[in-house]
UniProtKB/TrEMBL annotation:
Residues 22-101 form the Saposin B-type domain. The keyword Hydrolase applies. SMART domains: SapB. InterPro entries: AOAH, AOAH_Saposin_N, GDSL, Saposin-like, SaposinB_dom, SGNH_hydro_sf. PROSITE patterns: SAP_B (PS50015). Residues 1-22 form the signal peptide. This is Acyloxyacyl hydrolase. Residues 114-130 have a biased composition (Polar residues). GO terms for molecular function: hydrolase activity. Keywords: Disulfide bond, Hydrolase, Signal. Residues 111-130 are annotated as: Disordered. It comes from Anaeramoeba flamelloides. The keyword Hydrolase applies. It comes from the Eukaryota.
Amino acid sequence: MKIIFLFLFVFVFLIPYPQVLASDECLEATLALGLIRDIADVEMISIEDVLDKVCDYLPVELSEVCLKFVNRYAGDVIQFFMEEDNPDSVAHKLGFCKQSVCRLYPDEKKKSQRPCSQNTQENKYTPQNLGQDSQLKKSIWDIIKEEINKIAADHIPLVDLDNDHFVTYKTLRGSNWRGRDCNDVLPGVRPGAVPPNGDLDYDSNCNGIYGKDDNGISYEDKFCKDSKPMGVMVFGDSVGAHFHIPPQYLDAKQVVDGIISKTALHLLEMEADWPHKSYGTGFDTSDNDVCPGPVNSVYLQMRKINRCNHRNYQNIAVNGMSSHYIIKLIETTVNKDEQKTSYPTLTFLEIIGNDICRAKNINDFITPDDFKKKIIEFLDLLDESLAPGSKVITVGFVQGSILYETLHDHIHPIGHDITYSHLYDYLNCVGASPCRMWMTSNKTHRDAADAHSIILNQAYFDIIQDYKPKNFELGYLKFPLKQVEEYFKENNMDFSTTIEPVDGFHPSQIGQYYMGTYLWEDLKNKYPDFIPPENPNNEEIEKIFGDQGGY
Ligand SMILES: *[C@@H]1O[C@H](CO)[C@@H](O)[C@H](O)[C@H]1NC(C)=O
Ligand SMILES: [Ca+2]
Ligand SMILES: [Ca+2]
């Protein structure tokens, strides 16, 4: 049953931050129960036998909590599965789902061949009818939510000795999010810093370039000082952070083979995000079985232009981010005074959907005036904190109906002939949809959401017309999904591979790759002077400093 816990963790980050979590215990419980049933069917063992082993399928760190869950719920789960072989019914009887009308799983026509569980009388798990005991259930959820908040609420690294928001470990908002700190005790030493003395003795900006040549000239001065270094920063949502749940987690065979136990803890420590492979700040081009696909990013292009930019990236995107809370993210960057004395940054403001997704019906969208106000508040604060010469790109809203158009009749990795259209409506039914207005079979809703996204894009144009910042230049690029779709059509490629299979909502690794590629192309075409010139010393830097210390 501990899988419930895992799914809570994972899906929690879809919920708009920092609102209270929706009642999607129902979703997590149903998915977990469905997976338990799939495992029983694939392994040809009883539900009881799966429950005996289910904690082994999770990371050992979660074993203890898992066993507690199993001991509490297993008796009821076994009994309810005997009464009705359907995860929706079992989740409802357990008290996780309020509405019995919301059904994810179809009633199976074929009777399962798996062996029955023992009669509950002689079963070591006693049914406890916990469905009635909402108090107990509530306290368990509360504990879990508190745990999540502890590690993920602040969106800064967990342990950071010099408190500069750059650290030496990868997860927990570490170097997968912001370039690795090359000295975690000396404040002022961090990626993006302007070297105080040419980095003669040590590397103060963590780009791997320091020391002096045979004539005593500092390499940092010789190669970088006049090269117009520029970092990359992404203020964004789960697209900027690159939310991805491996579809293998829903595959009974792979779960039994240990895919969750081997990879889930890392995923939780990453808030289920993959910023190191994202369109904006991705740098990790190595193969990864649970997040396969090519990597291209604005950061990689900026580093290609100028190797002095090595490690100068900050991904400050947060799942669920919208204009309502974006201003809070500024606190999580390097502090104002330090940022001011850093190299300028190419900064993206990318919140491509949650302002639309937060709406509960078609009259409930944020007004363009409220939206403008929030964005201007954010830009005002940015103007106080960015180094002079910075550039800020606002990225337009997506036309989200493309999700339904592309996926509606495709089968979801859960299997059981469940289509995305059915999944979307089920998520709305249980109140767990991350985007009611786009992820729906109701065309009226999808069209209204598309229309409103055009209105909000217009708000960006209006802002850009009038807004006069002191420290940066401001631009707008459209979210390049349409271009990617055209490219896929022209080349007879399957466009659905650009969308995340598990959530049917985010760009996949392939989608992120094309986003990075097209945003960069658009930037070069529309704002050529936002991009600094190529550094003629790149080859020499590579010859002397190799991979510049890697990541
Ligand atoms: C779609 O949504 C509209 C507006 O909320 C509603 O009036 C209509 O009944 C819905 N259509 C269906 C088929 O549910
Ligand atoms: Ca640090
Ligand atoms: Ca340096």
